Protein 1
Amino acid sequence: MRTLAFALALSLYACGGAAPVAKPPVVVAGPDFARDEDRVLRLLASADGRFAARAGIVSDESELRGAGVQAILSEDTTTVMEGGRADLFSFDTRARALDAATKMLAQYTQNDRQNGLEIERLKYTLEAERARLAYERELPAGAAPLFVGLAATWPVNAPPADAEQHDARLAKRFEQVMAALGPISPEVRDELEASLDPIDASLEPRLRALEKRLRELAAPLAKHAPPPAPSTLPCKLTGSPGTTLGRMIAPPERQRVCVIVKTLASAPVDPLVAMSLHDDVVVALWALAIASGLAPSAATGGPRPMAETSPHQEASWTRRAALHPGEAIDTALAIDWILSDLQKNASAWDSLGDAPIDLAIRELAR
């Protein structure tokens, strides 16, 4: 049949028939980072309602349904749909979204002149969300942010029938956490300890000098002044028009840095602000001491907060120093860098937008 068709075409050509018209070459569009960045952010938003709220993304029904379809295809029996989306305990759904986003971003390098910084920001974001997933997956330790997230993302004014179903699913998640209660195995403890980065020996004297400087700036305040009231609104930096990630609400681990940047970009360091910053540095020093092997009760006996703190507040700061030392230390390093040239650095950071601390300082120091 193929031979007959070829012979027919050849005879037509020999008889003066029209020669085959050459088809125009297929033009394959090159990578479109803006398009793919939006796809990556929408992927993450469809799998984690907290990320959707930070990014201001409202996932459409097909995106939310896609997570459920992928769970079925993957024979994933752990995914639970809540309010039309996978709940935060659906760890495998979140992992699949991160894997797909990472694959989509693999074609881009940070050497891209136009989008290099935003590409790096996005890769940092994927790493941070993957670390958040790994932490929260380890029940019961990761349960607190999960339950807070469930409360924050539950639709308001839900019908009574939905509320009853929500309560039933929530009870099952509580049972899942309770079932995970028990002593941490030596293997897990060794793995956690091995994951800590080596402590830079120059950090402690640097932070102690900063603590002393801030204590002197706050000295005009009466002893044990009450701390300033914390902001109840999520913080986001101004960011440049060319960044999507930099203009998003800062993630939980950088909310405090965001508040500090916004505060120092708009006002001088008065004694009350200095006192608040001083206590951030104190928590960082506690974190350094605990990471170096000191018991939390001994670490908190060193430098002390200047603000009048309740036992609940001090316990919260101690937990932060012990469980999230990187966040506490990064906050202090951000304060140290901003105060090295307050008039310039705070406003420049606000204009840069949200970014991991080391990336922000690197970019702003150029």
Note: Residues 116-137 form the longest helix (22 residues).
Protein 2
Amino acid sequence: MIEQSVDFVYPEDELTHEENLYREAARRFLRIMNLKADYVANAKNPALANWATSYALGLAVCDGMSITNRACQLNVSPQALSKSIKAFQSIAGINTNAYTYTNGHNQ
């Protein structure tokens, strides 16, 4: 991902050391949103990347549609979709098995 301009000040670089849980949560979620946008924008197959990131994040839009059915809709294999999900999870540093294949079956 491309770093911000030199004018950008990272929150951890600020002089105040007050703990603000809301700010920390906002900073983490902003990072995830930026990673998702970057992952989709730079993908060879943006539709696949969009759905992979949505499944990786456990978004409600994925409810009711299995990885197999979504992969069929996207004209890719379930393994390709699952691999893309795992790739985004690795980039984002998240670990959720809600929608990924593990040990040969969907959890």
Note: The radius of gyration is 16 Å.
Protein 3
Amino acid sequence: MRLVDQAKTMVAQYSVFNKTAVAFRNIFNPHGALHKDQTRVLQELHKFCYVGATDHGADPIKMARIAGRREVYNWIVGHIGYEPFDLEMLMKQMQEAENE
């Protein structure tokens, strides 16, 4: 493949990634107040993807499923632009608010 073709392919891939990232940021605004539904979706994804959980047992199928879920979660969070620490703090605050 010629260098020019490789460059065109990379630009096209970046363009798709950038459009996806913009769409995710439009839905989950990382720099403003989150809407109740936005926080609910992020919280459910956090739980469903076992983020922060450490004990998964020894079942290799379950461990592979959890790894796949976390990969999707990280992909979504990466597109949104949240810092992992900030998002973890947000999840803890939402959990504390639910427990009150």
Note: The helical segments are 3-27, 36-48, 60-80, 84-99.
